[in-house]
Amino acid sequence: MYSIIVVPPPTTTDDTRTAQLRLAPGERLAFGRGAGNGLVIAHDGVSRRAGEIAAQGAFWILSNLSREQTYVVENPEGAGEHIKVAPGRLDAPVPFEFSRIVLPAAGDLLPVEVWAPRHDYLRPESGLDGVTTAPAFSLDPTKRYFAVLAALCEPRLRGAPHAPLPTVDQVVDRLRPGWPAASRASVQWNIDYLAVKLRLKPGPETADAGPRLNGKKESLVSLALRFDLVREEDLGLLVPGRPAADRAAG
């Protein structure tokens, strides 16, 4: 059963690509300018033995066989999230489901996409005794604060990982079709409430309020996306329409 899919870089100026390569667990794929039976990348700036990809069940590992060049593996869905694999590093595990190896090649940046779509899950156990584990983050999708959080996360969940976050006014504009009473004050109150609820800052009942939380919206969105507190399917809770940031730019 194949678990890893490798998408080679473009081979011509029209961005056409060769066929995808599929690896089963335990299989390895060499890549480079002289990779032979592996993935041949015909570019003078790529080492003859540039590296190797190995499938390991539901994830993959990368070996950098070059002598001097660091490789970057990007998460296209992760707002700049990436790992670096140093020259000579062997079997570096890659944690991203969708990844892009960026190979610097004599002034060019060649992308090799690697997908790991297979998911293995623990089978649920029944009949366990004891107290139920408390949830790490308790969020109610029916509450106004969740709609505010979804609106903040929307631009990046729509496939633009580096998109600027919407302003408070843009969130108000986005939520008003389903929440006519939305205002700057109510949206800002919910943002402050989320910062306390998600433990990004102490609550007002504490004696010491702690330092001011700078970049509050960025911190909320980063936490929500990192731990899947808001998913793409949650955007269905918002009234259909273009994200507010898009409307402001259009």
From TrEMBL:
InterPro entries: SMAD_FHA_dom_sf. It comes from the Bacteria. This is FHA domain-containing protein. It comes from Streptomyces pharetrae CZA14.
